[in-house]
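Person: I have long wanted to understand how a fold can be written as tokens. Underneath my words sits a plain record pairing an amino acid chain with its backbone structure tokens. Those tokens are not coordinates but codes from a learned vocabulary of shapes. I should like you to check that the lines agree and flag anything odd. The protein I mean follows directly.
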Amino acid sequence: MAIVKSRLLQKIYKKYPNFYKKDLEKFFNIILEEIKYSLKKGERVELRGFGTWSTHIQKARISRNPKTGEKVDTPEKKTIHFKFGKELFDKINNEKK
């Protein structure tokens, strides 16, 4: 089951009851907006121990529609690449459930 933003915020609220819910939500939204803004500018975002986001440019190409087989021009676009950090890798792979 995937964790959604609202559930993640609920967990943060429970862990830090001394903060107002609206302040924690604003702080969380600010972090997400800064990550988006940096990626849009083409910068790399690194959270030590968690991971790194970066953008890659996918070149324009001619692809095919699998249903009809006709050629389709696919324009150049940016994609987001995430590489997880060592601590996150270790936690995922070595922790007992």
